[in-house]
């Protein structure tokens, strides 16, 4: 019988006992690598293929914020952020940078394991059977490289702006409510308000419309949400 290959998890926390605690609960189902500082974490991530990152925010050297940002520039590996502060601002910033979930210390390791499995299930479901490339008149979006261009001019998008654009373009002419945007882009435990969603959409729309002669893509449906409209040839 061919053994089942375990998914690989990178744990990044400067508290070694936290790493050992997570290892204890994860080792039966995952292959776990643990490091204790930001620079070592980035080097380890770049050398190996990991299916999930469990990432502390406060690290010596490179912070968890910076690691999350750099990981999101090159790929969509699921990320769970750890923090000692139960602060909505920290949570919103982590989710804006592209984190998939957020756990506050002290935490129940069984809950962290359950959240890890849930994040991986969502990530796998999003990847299965979905094209990594969308092209409409005037716009090209490549999910594999997380790049988008309007009129052959590449856009500089944050992780959340890109995720929003991909969701809009994957559902052309469909009105998406703010609740749907929260669920699909920010995650089930998003603690912000509708202003965060509206402001992110405004920034995205401003970047899309900054290109000369760019068509309109994202329309506001008052009282409901937003709609992505495919421009005519």
Describe this protein's structure.
The protein is an alpha/beta fold and 233 residues long. The protein folds into two domains: 121 residues, Rossmann fold (3-Layer(aba) Sandwich); 96 residues, Winged helix-like DNA-binding domain superfamily/Winged helix DNA-binding domain (Arc Repressor Mutant, subunit A), CATH 1.10.10. It is 41% helix and 22% strand. It is built from eight helices and twelve strands. Strands 2-1-3-4-5 form a five-stranded parallel β-sheet, with helices on both faces. Strand 8 and strand 9 form a beta hairpin. The longest helix has 19 residues. The radius of gyration is 19 Å and the shape is elongated.
Care to give the gist of this entry?
With 233 residues, the protein is α/β, with parallel strands linked by helices. The protein contains 8 helices and 12 strands.
The class by helix and strand makeup works out as alpha/beta
Number of strands: 12
* Mass-distribution shape: elongated
Q: From the coordinates shown, what is the CATH architecture of the largest domain?
A: 3-Layer(aba) Sandwich
The helicity comes to 40-55%
Topology as H/E string? EHEHEHEHEHEEEEHEHHEE
Tally of separate helices: 8
Largest sheet: 5 strands, parallel
Strand order of the largest sheet: 2-1-3-4-5
Radius of gyration: 19 Å
Number of domains: 2
The pLDDT mean sits at: 84
């Amino acid at each position: 019988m061919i053994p089942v290959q375990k998914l690989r998890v990178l744990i990044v926390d400067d508290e070694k006992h936290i790493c050992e605690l997570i290892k204890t609960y994860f080792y039966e189902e995952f292959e776990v690598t643990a490091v204790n500082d930001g620079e070592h974490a980035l080097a380890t991530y770049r050398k190996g293929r990991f299916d999930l990152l469990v990432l502390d925010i406060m690290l010596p050297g490179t912070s968890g914020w910076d690691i999350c940002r750099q990981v999101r520039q090159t790929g969509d590996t699921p990320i769970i952020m750890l923090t000692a502060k139960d602060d909505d601002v920290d949570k919103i910033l982590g989710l804006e940078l592209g984190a998939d979930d957020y756990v506050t210390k002290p935490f129940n390791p069984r809950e962290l394991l359950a959240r890890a499995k849930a994040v991986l299930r969502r990530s796998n479901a999003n990847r299965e059977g979905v094209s990594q490339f969308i092209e409409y008149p005037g716009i090209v979006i490549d999910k594999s490289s997380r790049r988008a261009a309007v009129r052959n001019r590449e856009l500089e998008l944050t992780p959340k702006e890109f995720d929003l654009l991909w969701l809009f373009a994957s559902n052309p002419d469909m009105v998406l409510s703010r609740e749907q945007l929260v669920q699909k882009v920010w995650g089930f435990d998003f603690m912000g308000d509708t202003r965060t969603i509206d402001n992110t959409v405004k920034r995205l729309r401003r970047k899309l419309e900054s290109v000369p002669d760019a068509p309109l893509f994202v329309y506001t449906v008052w009282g409901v949400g937003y709609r992505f409209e495919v421009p005519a040839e």
